[in-house]
What does this fold into?
Amino acid sequence: MPDHLIGLLLGAEEDWPQAFEAILGRVGPVALSDGSTHTFRSERLTIEPFDLVDPVRTELVIDRLAYWYYHPREWLKKAALVNGTYLLNSPFTFQAMEKHSAYCAMLRLGLKVPRTILVPYKNPIDNVRWAYTAQKYNQAFDLDKIADELGYPMYMKPFDGGGWRGVSRINNRDDLHQAYDESGEMLMHLQATVEYEHFARALSIGPETMVMKFQPDEPMHHRYAVSHGFLGESAGNQTVAISRIVNAFFGWEFNSCEMLVQGDDVYPIDYANACPDVAVTSLHYYFPWAITALVRWSVFTLATGRSGRVDLHTRRYFEIADDESLSYDAKITAYLALADEHFDTARYWQWCAENLPHLEEQVHDWVTSADFERLLRETVDATYPERERDQFMAHFKGLTDLWAADNKHERPHPEGVTESRAVTR
It folds into this structure.
């Protein structure tokens, strides 16, 4: 009986790991049609010295740490290359394909990324070769002229991202120079704004996607709005497709994508997030779906022997991009077909229907249990000052109770495409 071990590589998070552990424990033995029976468990990984040829017990690792902590990042690379460990997410492409590279790649595919300009460092970088190199090769440039051509308002943000670190809205020249002066040794993009009706944030886990209405100017507990049907059919389909296309292109499987939506036009602006937000105090209503998808994809991956992939197959996407006979919509459809092939989407949903028919009901049972309420209370107590805890406990409990009321005994949808109306399509 194959016993599969999932490793959780964690930082400061406690809420979603406990939820994952609880739901994984409810999966139970999975008996497949070939006569094999599979069991699943998880453990939280520790950080310690390692030999490059050490064995690795965990077949799959969910990584939430390596984007900033380099020792475990290098262990993940070793585990993938030497031991064949399956990684969520790939440190190879997230290290090489930061937001700047991600913008370039999606522009190459013809997606509607707002105009973006990379400007040189404001302050000298800490390198003895800087002064000579800068004096000989750096060209003077007019920051005001660049901004005037790009148009106000705009955004200045680090080329490699980092959870809203260093992001500034630039309304005028004073804002421009203040933000640039404060950027120091960060390498910055200037990005044009887009007039938009909706800010959409899509969370994708394997072949599953949830598109949510996002309100970036609100406090964290209000940023994800429970707003059903806020996108039209075309825009809704595009947001789902773009999120999945981005992930398949880069080999990512646990990522969020931010998009601005104006009518039927969708503009992706941020889609390289190595550690997407899955906190219960952020996602609230959508938290049970996220944990279900993470368990479901992990179990499917291990039980079916899915192999991890280090290399990328970008040429297949570029061939579509270079086909002048295809319209924008036709290209999106063709890219999505490649993405669904990568994630084995049809097989995934068929496999889940046959082997995990009980999972949705188990999740519902847990979310309505005293154990979930305990987790929620502990998270609220750890997040908010004492005087606000009852208020926020009532807020988040109300939203998760609403999810429970809306999702009694749901079953996985065969197409696996979910949009924020709480309807699959």
